Amino acid sequence: MKKTSTRLADGRELIYYDSRDDVVRDAVDRRPLDPTVTTSEIRRDPLLGDAIAVASHRQGRTYHPPADECPLCPSENGRLSEIPDSSYDVVVFENRFPSLAGDAGRCEVVCFTSDHDKSFADLSEEQAGLVLEAWTDRTAELSHLDSVEQVFCFENRGAEIGVTLGHPHGQIYGYPFTTPRTALMLRSAAQHKEQTGGRNLFADVVEKEIEDGSRIVLEGEHWVAFVPYAAHWPYEVHLYPRRQVPDLLALDDDARTEFPKVYLELLRRFDRIFGEDQPVTPYIAAWHQAPFGPLDEFEGVTRDDFALHLELFTIRRTSGKLKFLAGSESGMSVFINDVPPEAAAERLREVASK
To answer: What would the pLDDT profile of 326-335 be if each residue is shown by its tens digit?
Structure first.
């Protein structure tokens, strides 16, 4: 992998990730952009103990542009975009409309391919591996920022999810705090460790799923994917490396090599859940990594007690119908799942690639 860092016209950082070492990236951003102005603010909820970001400047962000005006396509034929070069493999840049910025963290955009009409599932294994290298590199870089305590790499796919740009891309958030969901996992891990005489919660969950087998979706030599026993979403898969590690940085070469094959198969199965004649499946793919900030409040656990894993889920519950977060989910955080996890796993096995 070759990494080339540059700056956009308004001062934001942009990084090219190339599979070839001989590629030269010296294109200049020729757009007349004013410096980026953000108003991100972190506010803590005294009742729930969590935090929210107030980012009013995002109201003016780009919203469903036509394909020939896509800001994530390369700059070519006289049309200038966020990517100055006329082609790219994988590129990462600071979000022009960030939810988090300055002392309140950082937001980046990850473009998986220059091909506007592809999705992640259409990538080659080599290209998917390059995206993994970009996620890993950005996790390492953001972890060194004073304003970042946790790094979150994720992809939103589909208009139903709320995606406003059709180009295949994801995002990376550098939070200035440990997120509420991760905090819940760490508290559960601490409690489990104390109650079991030092056993690891994540390892026990994975071992139990493998032993049961009814919710296993697919297994590789270095990765295992399953629908969790208490899945929140209609179709939800958790993907774990068999060797427990706290973050992307700690994955070994064998796991990195196998990841593209396993992950691409999962994504392709997701697109076949509801039938070959149905629209592509909207989903969220989320990497859960151990925080880099202090864990003093989670007594008895360290970063090594956390387990890197990816959670992939869709809000579509059946053909043409979405799972809405209504009263119970939004008002009380109690999910009601319409699809039994065992049935979801069986369906995901049925649509395996031939």
So the answer is: 999 999 999 9
